[in-house]
Amino acid sequence: xxxxxxxxxxxxxxxxxxxxxxxxxxxxxxxxxxxxxxxxxxxxxxxxxxxxxxxxxxxxxxxxxxxxxxxxxxxxxxxxxxxxxxxxxxxxxxxxxxxx
Length: 100
Description:
This protein has helices spanning 8-12, 14-17, 37-54, 81-94; strands at residues 22-24, 27-33, 59-63, 66-71. By secondary structure, the chain is of the alpha+beta class. Helix 3 packs antiparallel against helix 4 (81-94).
């Protein structure tokens, strides 16, 4: 997958396209809550498989039933097309839609 830095205009529209996400310190930020640790960790495992497929990995943490995800592209020093692609796939997964 190609990595292209996002323009200022694209970055400003991210929260419109991804309403569950916010911009925090220049990173795409999302917090998800699950019924318990097993559901949260299972979700992380599914995201990890997607991330490995596209070659882009999240900054994230897990405490019991909560998963916090931050996306940025260190190679570009900001947000890129990889962050958008991964965020869209994470949203599809969170919504229960099969990811492509």
